[in-house]
């Protein structure tokens, strides 16, 4: 189908930064359409999986394959002028919840690829928050299972630590049970500013039915 790393590199050369997650979603979908001009693309497509409806951020179909993408855009506060355009990024913080949500996306894509042999999924996170890709100073945090620092392997049952409060776990109480094993590999996306949080990196976790560690 496509190499998502090449698609992200092509997108970064045109759009090194985005105002919002919705803008990132639309720009990535357009880049995929450029790479696959004959594909049918849909955004926020409802997909039925085991009697539940999963809304997929980007859904591309060709005669031979389905591409399902879930994406997140998490930012730290940054004000920067890029190509004559002002960007004022919010400070999202709540990295523990952000980690849970991207891994929940991986699990959703596992469910989709289990039922559709010709489907390939990608869970993508684009961020200028280095907390996501670096090892925490405290290895015993309540979100330790959900760490996505560079080089970590994700597998099995991932759950909150015993000291996680109900506010942290609200609407995210269930553990995430991964079918397969994944190696976390971060790539530099862009550096639109030399200021703190001026570096953006991307994580793209590939999900297929016949999974190897990737």
Structure description:
The two termini are 17 Å apart. Helix content is 24%, strand content 32%. The chain has a single domain, classed as Trna Endonuclease, Chain: A, domain 1. The radius of gyration is 17 Å and the shape is globular. With 214 residues, the protein is of the alpha+beta class. It contains 4 helices and 12 strands. β4 and β5 form a beta hairpin. The model has no long low-confidence stretch (mean pLDDT 94). The strands form 4 sheets. The chain has a 6-stranded mixed β-sheet, with helices on both faces. A two-stranded antiparallel ribbon has the order 4-5. A two-stranded antiparallel sheet has the order 7-10. α1 packs across α2.
């Amino acid at each position: 189908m496509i190499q998502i790393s090449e698609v992200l590199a092509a997108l970064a050369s045109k759009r090194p930064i985005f105002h919002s997650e919705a803008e990132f979603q639309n720009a990535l979908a357009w880049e995929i359409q450029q790479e696959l001009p004959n594909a049918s693309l849909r955004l926020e497509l409802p997909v039925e999986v085991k009697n539940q409806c999963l809304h997929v951020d980007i859904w591309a179909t060709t005669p031979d394959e389905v591409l399902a993408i879930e994406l997140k855009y998490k930012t730290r506060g940054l004000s920067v002028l890029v190509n004559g355009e002002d960007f004022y990024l919010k400070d999202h913080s709540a990295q523990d919840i952000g980690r849970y949500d991207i891994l929940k996306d991986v699990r959703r894509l596992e469910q989709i690829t289990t039922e559709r042999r010709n489907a390939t999924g990608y869970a993508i996170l684009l961020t200028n928050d280095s907390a996501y890709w670096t090892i925490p100073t405290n290895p015993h945090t309540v979100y330790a299972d959900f760490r996505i620092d560079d080089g970590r392997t994700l597998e099995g049952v991932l759950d909150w630590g015993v000291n996680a409060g109900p506010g942290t776990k609200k609407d995210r109480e269930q553990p995430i049970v991964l079918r397969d094993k994944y190696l976390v590999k971060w790539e530099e996306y862009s550096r639109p500013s030399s200021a703190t949080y001026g570096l953006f990196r991307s994580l793209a976790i590939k999900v297929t039915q016949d999974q190897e560690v990737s």
